[in-house]
Amino acid sequence: xxxxxxxxxxxxxxxxxxxxxxxxxxxxxxxxxxxxxxxxxxxxxxxxxxxxxxxxxxxxxxxxxxxxxxxxxxxxxxxxxxxxxxxxxxxxxxxxxxxxxxxxxxxxxxxxxxxxxxxxxxxxxxxxxxxxxxxxxxxxxxxxxxxxxxxxxxxxxxxxxxxxxxxxxxxxxxxxxxxxxxxxxxxxxxxxxxxxxxxxxxxxxxxxxxxxxxxxxxxxxxxxxxxxxxxxxxxxxxxxxxxxxxxxxxxxxxxxxxxxxxxxxxxxxxxxxxxxxxxxxxxxxxxxxxxxxxxxx
Length: 297
Description:
Helices cover 36% and strands 15% of the residues. The longest helix has 21 residues. By secondary structure, it is of the alpha+beta class. The protein is globular. The protein has two domains: 93 residues, Phosphorylase Kinase, domain 1 (2-Layer Sandwich); 188 residues, Transferase(Phosphotransferase) domain 1 (Transferase(Phosphotransferase), domain 1). Helix 6 packs across helix 8. The strands form two sheets. It has a five-stranded antiparallel β-sheet with strand order 1-2-3-5-4, sandwiched between helices. Strands 6-7-8 form a three-stranded antiparallel β-sheet. The protein contains nine helices and eight strands.
């Protein structure tokens, strides 16, 4: 086994003051042209991202990191994100780096592992599950009120803390107000792509920017809950099907029946998820309405 790649020296030097030194550096992910490390010091931790220079077959991650940094600046100015979330950003000899405040939590799929089984039907799990869903909706409500759409709501981008509150991360693909230059948005993770986005991807050229709207985020939230609670994606297609075929299935539906797949009955959650997964965007609740649906009965 080889040595794990280290973060760019320029990035480490820049974040040392924020964390009180770099006592521990651990590579977390290395995929699709980007790497993420956790840098831990005496004062806390940051998530440090950098592109992998020269890697073939992936989009220019350096440009995407620059775009995410620009989005973070604007989201902070709009009051959507706290001032301490963006720690720093810059260039290095291989491209770009971005440092973010560390968010404690586990990805949504892992967090809902207990709820996916029959043993999840416990009095303690029900309010916890609604709390996870409600906190996701509240985060989206704040973005939407500022004129922004996350545009990549999915289990990997949703971290659930020990207190049961969810945090959304990864704002690289977010769609905001104004006409700022950006990489064209062409959808994100296929499995949580809304039907209207799927249809637009199929019917437009690959360099056409698609401005995701709030109902697409609501679909992504519902699709994430459906998937992580039942273990099934909300629309059926074969795993090895081409992306175009998957998008066509999503665009035309139907959504699989939740009642036949859920591990145990939970009417309040089922009602809200079904509302999120309405094929027509104007039939979905707003994020604010959704937060109310997830209140304990």
